[in-house]
């Protein structure tokens, strides 16, 4: 019987530099709701989570105005300089509650369009796995490689085994915490959890996810996310009951 519990970690300490808005992008609104509230409420609709840790920027002044801040299931910690530092801070904040073999699902606050079917499939597929893995979407465009620092095409790249890494990324607590520390100590660029786990010599598994699990990054992404949410359903507010 699988006795591992499931914890949710949401890195939300970014400043959204590429969005060029007058607030961090997670505090922009879609249909009147903060992106952060939409993302958290979609995740917490799943009944598996024992708790949720959100990493916030040390100078975040928007959080107290969110719906999520009133939810007793959601806890916060101070994030770090890079995304990986924020994830590690959230894992440290969960250290007294999470067991080594428990699962941690890490999901970008900037991905509000996660489909509940994808979340459910990720959890179901990986629950018996020793390490964990991530949602990913196959690359569908023809890919070009340029010469470094130029726009001259050097080659067309074979895309048949290339995937776009999405979130959630789901790993055993101890494996992930140790892998992140090791990778950061080694100065490895850790843009997602899987890259740290790979650096530790372990093999994450991909679970195919929907390509519309968009990470809001540039100004044009905002309208697109609004459209996608309209298609897949915005979802109700964050449920308030704790699942222990
Ligand atoms: N120091 C950081 C940097 C990023 N993030 C989070 O990591 C996720 C993915 O990062 P990205 O899309 O790059 O967000 P930003 O860093 O906010 O954007 P930008 O790079 O344009 O500044 C986001 O949920 C972001 O809030 C974080 O928690 N801590
Ligand atoms: C974790 C991630 O969302 C996977 O696609 C991504 O790596 C976040 O960071 P990025 O700097 O925006 O690539």
UniProtKB/TrEMBL annotation:
Annotated InterPro entries: IspD, IspD/TarI, IspD/TarI_cytidylyltransf_bact, ISPD_synthase_CS, Nucleotide-diphossugar_trans
A biological process from GO: isopentenyl diphosphate biosynthetic process, methylerythritol 4-phosphate pathway
Example GO molecular function: 2-C-methyl-D-erythritol 4-phosphate cytidylyltransferase activity
Coiled coil: none
EC main group: transferase
Residues annotated as site: Positions MEP for the nucleophilic attack: 159, 215
Site (Transition state stabilizer): 18, 25
Record keywords: Isoprene biosynthesis, Nucleotidyltransferase, Transferase
Enzyme Commission number(s) from the entry: 2.7.7.60
Catalytic activity: 2-C-methyl-D-erythritol 4-phosphate + CTP + H(+) = 4-CDP-2-C-methyl-D-erythritol + diphosphate
SUPFAM superfamilies: Nucleotide-diphospho-sugar transferases
Listed pathway(s): Isoprenoid biosynthesis; isopentenyl diphosphate biosynthesis via DXP pathway; isopentenyl diphosphate from 1-deoxy-D-xylulose 5-phosphate: step 2/6
Pfam families: IspD
Function in brief: Catalyzes the formation of 4-diphosphocytidyl-2-C-methyl-D-erythritol from CTP and 2-C-methyl-D-erythritol 4-phosphate (MEP).
NCBIfam families documented for this protein: ispD
Similarity field: Belongs to the IspD/TarI cytidylyltransferase family. IspD subfamily.
Full protein name: 2-C-methyl-D-erythritol 4-phosphate cytidylyltransferase
Taxonomic lineage from the root: Bacteria, Pseudomonadati, Pseudomonadota, Gammaproteobacteria, Pseudomonadales
Gene behind this protein: ispD
